[in-house]
Amino acid sequence: MSRHTAEILWTRGDQPFIDKRYSRRHLIRFDGGVEVAGSSSPHVVPLPYSAEDAVDPEEAFVAALASCHMLTFLQLAALKRLVVDRYEDAAEGELARKADGRMYIARVTLRPAVRFAGPDRPTPAELTALHHAAHEQCFIANSVLTEVRCEPRLSAD
Question: Which end of the chain is less packed: N or C, by CB atoms within 10 Å?
Fold first, then answer.
């Protein structure tokens, strides 16, 4: 079994705390050494206590699903000897409220656009089948109960 880690670091400094007037900005450090600024979403915690220029957990969740789908798709395309020149996705997550009032990400929609090169290019049906297979094999999609949709787009060549 492989392990995947991330470190989260937040410090209060001289900010008040119990009155909820503290910055939610924090550091996310991944096991490869990359560091990213994190924060709560300004949609959840108002400015200035959140940071618009940082990654919030909801965005990270959507990005993890989109990235995993892309990596799986690229592997499947290579196995079929299809040459991918470019892959882009405009993924989106939607927050909703459960019957008990708790918030959750109810839906993630992936909108990948893939540009292929060379003589062998998939038909629209083959492209849809590749995305379906990528979704079925994506580790992250298999790890969540959130509905994950994939709506491939035409690439602007």
Answer: N
